[in-house]
Amino acid sequence: MKALITGITGFAGSHLADHLLQLGYEVAGTIRSTSSLKHVSHIRSELQLFECDLTDEAAVENVIGILKPERVFHLAAQSFVPASWAAPMETIHNNLSGQIHLLEAMRKHCPASRILIACSSEEYGQVEGDEVPIKETNPLRPLSPYAVSKIAQNLLGYQYYKNYGIHAVCVRTFNHTGPRHGEQFVTSNFAKQIAEIEKGLKPPVLYVGNLEARRDFTDVRDIVRAYGLALDACDPGEVYNISSGTGREIREMLNILLGFSTTAIDIQEDAARLRPSDVKALIGDYTKFHRKTGWRPEISFEVTMLDLLNYWRQMLAQ
Ligand code: GDD
What span, in angstroms and rounded, lies between the C-alpha atoms of 241 and 135? Predict the structure, then answer.
């Protein structure tokens, strides 16, 4: 089975590459000229990498035409919510044009192939107290340009299935984390700050934003296992939540990380980390996905957090 991963050098993409190689897939990926290969250096010789900016229609068509992958895992995106307020058009353009180019190229060169579209719990946006845990049927009330871009990606999958029969499966993935997570995201940011403080690289003060938000965290290694199953077992044109079903305040996550720290640390709010609007609570119901695939998360949150902290400790030791 030949798989193409867009965003293969990123956080979830590199874990997905590890997973699919273990399952015996031939794995290819798209990279940009600026991409760092550090997350895939241990498997570099097993990968086929194509330099391809997804916003370049001809480049995408070329890769799909050459490779004709049976499975496409479309993970590449501008994925940091605050960046989408700073540059809304860039987020919308990146996230939509790349996907349209992929779908058009698949339509032309490999219409029987399957594509997984990585969408987001951010699509739900403003969620009322009695709507938690959130089902796929919940109204979408997006609170950021990023969320709007993900809703459009989701609907494009539906449209290409209905118009052209492309086997597109959308997953609304809730927060996920673990080793290699980008330092702009909250779990990784806090873990990195702790590792820096332990090493004496920073004074013992950890800067935070809104600690009251509640999020549903799953280990990235569980998430990529779900992605593999999604294209085997889920229905095209449908959308599935992938989540743990457990909500935690950001403060609770911070306390778990601090529990692993070897040094005393003060907490300080940094106003620059507060958002113009922050989704209060995102907790997902993954029953629909579980019924199709049997998947459930296996790695405990504490293990994920410790692995993430150890990842940063190792990075700083290098
Ligand atoms: N980044 C960050 N930094 N967030 C902070 C901080 C901080 O110092 N302090 C508190 N937070 C809060 C944010 O306000 C938000 O409520 C929550 O922590 C999570 O923030 P992020 O880790 O940046 O993730 P996100 O929820 O905005 O989005 C992530 O998850 C989505 C799935 O729900 C991203 O990975 C998205 O790409 C993904 O779609």
Answer: 7
Domains of the chain, CATH where assigned: 2-176+217-242 (3.40.50.720), 182-215+246-282+299-317 (3.90.25.10)
Q: Rounded mean pLDDT of 185-196?
A: 98
Angle between helices 186-198 and 301-317 (to 10 degrees): 50
Measured by CA distance, the residue closest to atom 31 of ligand 1 is: 175
Q: Of all protein residues, whose CA lies closest to atom 16 belonging to ligand 1?
A: 213
User: 197: part of which helix (H) or strand (E)?
Assistant: helix 186-198
Residue with the smallest CA separation from ligand 1 atom 4 is 186
Pocket test for ligand 1, best of 175, 189, 246 (most atoms within 8 A of CB): 175
Q: Cα–Cα distance between 35 and 307 in angstroms, integer?
A: 24
Question: How many A from CA of 70 to the centre of ligand 1?
Answer: 33
- Ligand 1 centroid – CA 104 distance (Å): 32
d(CA 163, CA 147): 24
Model pLDDT for residues 15-29, shown as the tens digit of each residue? 999 999 999 999 999
Cβ–ligand 1 contact at 278 (below 6 Å): yes
**pLDDT tens, residue by residue, 275-299:** 998 889 999 999 999 999 999 999 9
pTM above 0.90, yes or no: yes
pLDDT, tens digit (0-9, with 9 covering 90-100), for 193-211: 999 999 999 999 999 999 9
